[in-house]
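PT: before anyone asks, these are the final sequences, not the draft ones from last week. 1141 residues across everything. Please model them as a single complex and drop the result in this thread when it's through.
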Amino acid sequence: MAHYKIVHTTTYHYSSPVSVCHNLLILTPRESERLRCPSHRLIIRPTPLTTERRSDFFGNYVHAFAIEELHRSLTVTSTSRVEIKPDERLNGAEIPTWEALRDGTRQQTDPHWLACAPFRFNSPRISASPKFAAYAAPCFAPGQPIVESIQRLTTKIHGEFTYDTRATNVKTSTEEVFSLRRGVCQDFAHVQLACLRSMGIPCRYVSGYLRTIPPEGQTKMVGADESHAWVAAYCGEALGWIEFDPTNDCLCGTDHIPIAWGRDYSDVVPFRGAFIGGGKHTLSVSVDVREHPPRTG
Amino acid sequence: MMQSQHMSGNEQSWQGYAPLEGVYDEMKTADGAIRPPWEPSVGAFDALGAAELQSRWEQGEREIAKNGISYNPHDQEQGLSRPWALDPIPLVLDETEWERIRAGIRQRAVLYELVLQDLYGPQKLFKDRILPPHVLFAHPQYYPAYHGIQHADATRLQLYAADLARSPDGRWWVTENRTHAPFGLGYVLENRVMSARFFPKIMRDAHIHRVAPFFAALRESLAELAPRNRDNPRTVLWSMGPMSPTYFEDAYLARYLGYTLAEGADLAVRNNQVMLKTLGGLLPVDVLFRRLDDHNCDSVELRSDSPYSIPGLLEVMRSGGVGVSNGLGSALLEAPILRAFEPVLSRLLLGEELILPTVATWWCGDAKALTYVVEHLDNLLVTTAFEGIDTAGIRPAQLKQADKEALIARIKENPENFVAQETVARSSTPVWEKTGPVPWRLALRSYAVKSKADYCVLHGGLARVSPDPLRLDVAMTSGDRSQDVWIRTPGTVEETTLLQPPGATISLKRSGRDLPSRVCDNLFWLGRKVERIESAVRLHRLATRVSTSEYDSEYLTRFLSRALRGREASPGDSVPEDVPISLVELQTRLEKALLEPASTNSLPNMVADAMRLTYTVRDRIAVEMWRSVQRISQESISLKANWNRGDTVRLGHLDTLLSGLNGFAGLTAESMTRADGWRFLDLGRRIERALQGCQLLNATLTKPGDDESVSLELLLEISDSIMTYRNRYLATLQPAPALDLLLTDESNPRSIGFQLTCIMEHITQLPGDQHTATRSVDNRIALSMQNSLRLAQVYELAEVNRSGNREKLHRMLGKLGRQLLDLSDAISGQYLVHAGLPRHFGSV
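LR: through. Structure below.
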């Protein structure tokens, strides 16, 4: 079991005042069998009159707020304590073939076919196509277990795509990333999703944090961590959704802390909204993920 | 067309109407008899005679043009604003037949409401494998945010419409469903108004069901959505604005239903309520009658680049703060894929067969359906599974073999994305073609509105007709026509009109401050534009009038070229030295200034702007004012066309144009209530007139030259003040008295001083100024201008310095001009641009 304290601060500075803004936040870690979030605190400055908390269609925690006083900056600090258990589902489990998985969810024989349905089709940032299917096909040998196939694909993307923070931005299309063969975690995840959907495998985009281990002999810098993104694919009734990280070529364990999932990035944007006024705006984000033993006594 | 031109005789034209081969004809049976419900009307049309019918109809079309209900200046040339022209002949149905349609439409509305409740609720239809999950999750316009906005059992479908086609055996088939914001009700009203106006007796004698009860039910149904003030909710018709093809109908409906017409930019979320931005402040909105696509409604949670949205709306809807019709997410049911499942859904959810069957439809995502479709391709119409509406389908029978094979390959590669359906050989119905009726093909749209626990179906409908049946498969097509639909009743006609709501006492109110700020902004600019047009017309009228007069041509050309330059300069610009030019050269320059297409200040462009502005405020001003702007527009077109036909002709047009402008001013003064709208229109006009005055005086008086008498006379002439001057001072033309009359005399409606007095008066009356101790910016500017003018010494201003200039006058006019522009900005900033357009976080 790993214990973390995560501080995620987002600040917008505006060159001229903003008179009103409406925002949605997805910053609260999502609880599951493996993950517990005993405390989560959200501090918004300037303080909104009301903040509504609810669950979205996918079950993620959403906070909605509006600020109706003039402001020149907006800061949201999200502080979470998280406990996460290692994923032991793959130990000795019987794993279905990828074809069985694909056909079971498509032909509605898999008991979870309906829960998989939102994650099978195209979504705003993902369009299945023969191009992606052709790229993925060599990893999906006939009769191969699903997890192994997806791991091969994860390795392939990791090997053939260059991690490059300047090649793309948050709006770059998955098709463009695919032809550039470059990008960041969001782009890697989108490419993998496009491949999996093209192969008929239900899959989702997971946004969250990654614990980074500082180079040996150096102390960890506060705020050096980042928001991270990876994918989860449905691997049958027994296994459920298994998480893969194409940026780091690994299965996700206790270093990966999920916040939310959806069909692609557009469903889980951490900070979205509309504002009036503001002139030019600058954004600064800092994320700090720290191992934090549970409080005693 | 079977109908030939020579049948001009009355009797023959209707008797000789020859239906098309192989299809059902609405009016005539196969053996040539007139169907019973048509008999009295056909008899009456016959008795009226072709010539009389045609002449009445031409009168009707003129009426439409005059009222501007058919006009959208943005696409004057393409004519897209009006997908359907009107046709004088109605479609006539008898009550028995209608009863079946009514029952069928009602049944479908009930069915679709149940489907919506399930899809955005328990999803039993998916769980029980009745519908494939594609219906939602593969739909390109699906947003997960559609779930959980409304309570599971809340009504989502206030308004429903279906498109019908009649097959050769006389049966009606449903070809399309309209579930989000059914289009066409404005045309239903317009058609009915026109029928009633031009065939009052024929209509009365035919015992036609009224359409008004439906609209009363619509109002009630929308009122029930209100979270508060249910007896008198503030309802806003939420339009996409004048650029949208539905704007005509939006404005028409808003006016008829008594709703405020507003665009996304007029609405905002504040304190978890939807607010209408008005001059008097923000007013809470209870119900939104939306006329735009679901995904455009909220840029925070739905399509983020929607310019029509109300950011934050979904959050308000979740807390029940506003009613929205139809519910969000309802548009997805228009997808062709649903039609493949309608018979099953009806059996399952209602335990009934569909009263009005759907044309047979196959969704290729089903393996058996795919096989059938490929085998019977030539008899089918192929569309995409999700976006069939408003896009024409493919008719494989018309394809070459290679293209057909390519289509089959495309379908097989992605069968879930395709739907194929049978087509109906649509019926024909008589349409008026100048001398007689001819058969065109028919599509009938029928509407239902939620009424208490049930649905009320419109006793009538929208008939769309076209000589080409394929055009009717696409919802919006130019070049087609629409017809009124007469449902004949043997009984008495129920009398309802929306104009007198039953039983209610209307509370008195003085037209108030619920005017959207945007409307005031447009009125303000309309005022400025019209005045700018007027000053241009005055200059050219003078130039045309005096070009052949006894004036010395040197002085004349000097004055005119100075005045022209004044219009193009900025306030405070120094006046350049005169360069002598010939009269011919001056004429070219004048013509260029007035008619140059590239210049924003040319007459055609200014008039087009004025038309556009008038169009956007059309539901706020008297019809006569709209007509008056239209006349100005027409006259400016003839002026341009006849520019080179000699001074007399040109002068005639300029005079007519000026009297048109005077007419507009008169209507402003006489027919607008003295509310904020009028104030902003007049404020725009006064600011522009003062500004034009400053520019003209600066250009023509600050470098007087040797002999000023011609300049002064022309200046007084162009400023419409020569009579007053002569009455006061007889014939002696001197600069100081002229300056007094044009600048400082507050009793002369053409003087700058008079404009400033009006401006001051308006500004003190604007909302929000009364309770603050300090003066607002606009107030300070206006006061400063008024004071400096009142304190000015006319004789000092008239003094010429050693270099031959009136430096003091030049400085004063420059300052006034700049202040006027500042004032215009200050007014915009304070009252009009309440808020800019919303922007979006580029997100993290």
